[in-house]
Write a structure and sequence with these properties.
Number of strands: 0
Structural class: mainly alpha
Distance between the termini: 97 Å
Helix content: over 70%
């Protein structure tokens, strides 16, 4: 009886890839069919979904890379400079030199009017009147009287100040131990900054003496820095360059102590108020915090150091030959009184606030450029 269903051989022959009717040879192998894979262009919806998933993965990886950058910015291992190494301190010295030298030189016109008004409060009624009179009489060069000793003196001072602060902060922290240094960190800032400024003022003093004399005498007693140094030493000896050192210490050491301690405290408070941590912010934001903290610190610095600043100007301009420091101060104070110690305060607040903010901004920008963390808020690890 014939089968109702075809045999396996019949089915194999019917669906063979060989031409219909040709039987395969005994040793001939049939081609193996490959599993069918749909082409992506035939399924546009499926293709779009896969494409979006691929792009999302790429973007997520790029985002993770970008998010790591701010953290790498403030880690002590960032860059190629090892913290507290000789190269690290050299970088801080150069940063301080640039920050102080450039900013003080740029505000020479403000400093000129301030010094002249401190010596004679009735000389000018205001800044614009002063610049107008000086410009008409001496030209633009007259408005920048004293720029040369300012550049030399404050470049040297900035190098010792910022480099010395970083050095002494690390030194005193190691001597005190980690726990004690953290507990008394404000005292650490004050001590380190005072030590650095003590040395920095010795470098600044000769140039400051020349600057003040050039700015408070009409016409200026010297046309340049080295001409002024030569004239002072020829008449008064080397001691003439340092006769304002004690009042300079009296002005600059409190100023610098306030500058560094208040800056560190203000920056820490700003990051404490902002969401997240310091490492969550990029270098532009961190530099902006340095600028804001520097301006607020500068206002405090100006108020604390202003009486000594007035006295420095008076002593350099009006201290008599052979007169002792104490006698000169007593004589000057009898003439100007307590209110006279505050002549030009408003101008100096504006000047020092701007100056300090620019210095911190330049200094920390230079540190970031060299691969170092910005100052404040996070204590760097060894």
């Amino acid at each position: 009886m014939p089968l109702l269903f075809p045999t396996q051989g019949t089915l194999s022959h019917a669906f063979s890839p060989l031409p219909f009717g040709r039987a395969p040879e005994p040793d001939e192998q049939l081609p193996v069919s490959k599993p069918h894979k749909p082409q992506q262009h035939r399924y546009p919806a499926w293709s779009a979904v896969e494409d979006l998933k691929s792009k999302a993965g790429t973007l997520s990886e790029e985002a993770r890379t970008e998010l790591k950058k701010p953290g790498q910015l403030v880690r002590p291992t960032s860059g190629t400079i090892e913290l507290y190494s000789q190269k690290y301190y050299s970088t801080c010295i150069i940063g301080g030199l640039i920050a102080c030298g450039a900013t003080h030189t740029a505000i020479t016109p403000l400093d000129l009017v301030k010094c002249r008004r401190q010596v004679d409060s009735k000389m000018y009624k205001g800044n614009f009147e002063a610049w107008g009179k000086i410009g008409r009489a001496e030209g633009l060069r007259g408005i920048f009287t004293g720029w040369s000793p300012t550049l030399f003196g404050y470049s040297a001072q900035g190098a010792f100040k910022y480099g010395g602060y970083e050095y002494f902060k690390k030194l005193y922290s190691d001597l005190a131990g980690d726990d004690t240094a953290l507990r008394y960190k404000t005292s650490l800032y004050l001590t380190a900054s005072a030590s650095a400024e003590f040395i920095a003022d010795i470098a600044l003093c000769p140039f400051e003496a020349v600057k003040v004399r050039m700015q408070t005498t009409i016409p200026p007693f010297a046309s340049g820095t080295f001409g002024g140094v030569y004239r002072i030493t020829r008449i008064e000896g080397t001691a003439g360059l340092y006769k304002g050192l004690y009042p300079l210490w009296g002005r600059q050491i409190p100023y610098t102590m306030m500058k560094f301690a208040s800056f560190e405290t203000i920056v820490e408070a700003i990051y404490g108020y902002l969401p997240g941590q310091k490492s969550d912010y990029g270098k532009a934001a961190q530099t902006g915090v340095s600028f804001a903290g520097g301006y607020l610190a500068g206002i405090l610095c100006a108020i604390v150091s202003h009486p000594a600043d007035v006295m420095v100007s008076k002593l350099n301009a009006d201290r008599q030959a052979g007169e002792t420091f104490g006698a000169a101060m007593g004589r000057i104070y009898k003439v100007i009184g307590f209110p006279g110690l505050w002549n030009g305060l408003v101008l100096r607040i504006f000047m020092i606030g701007t100056l300090t903010s620019l210095q911190w901004g330049i200094y920390d920008s230079f540190k970031v450029y060299m691969g170092l963390p910005t100052t404040g808020a996070v204590a760097p690890e060894d």
